Prior knowledge:
The protein is mainly alpha-helical and about 140 residues long. The chain folds into two domains: about 1-45; about 60-140, Helicase, Ruva Protein, domain 3. Helix content is about 55%, strand content about 0%. The chain has seven helices and no strands. Helix 5 (about 80-90) packs antiparallel against helix 6 (about 110-125).
Amino acid sequence: MGDMIKNYGFETPEYVSKEDFENFKMSYQVILERRYALKRFCRKGIPAQFRPHVWMTLSGAYKMMKDHPQVYETASTSQPPKKILTTIMADIPRTFPENAHFSQTQGKGDLLPVLQRILIAFAVTFPEIGYCQCWAMQPVHT
């Protein structure tokens, strides 16, 4: 196989010079190395202090917030159908009752309002889906 036939057996197009191809490979290698480093970092465990930022970055949430700044605020402060709101409000206190962040009886329950806003925002944004009881656990586990 010739010099310009690469990994997958395809010939490099004539309009791509060997120099252009080598330059591309060198610049892309930096991206790949960062990607592999990120994978290793994630697999070994992301330190707790970095998890929120890493999650928001990798999930695309920061980009969505930048591109659509008012969507979450509008959805999370909207009123869902009464049946859905009643279900969410009944579910939230039962979510992780042994966790101090979610228990008003055993702790401060400071994350209950956050979870409520997330679930309401989802139910309002996707009315055809609404709300399912097990979803109260998802934002915590992801």
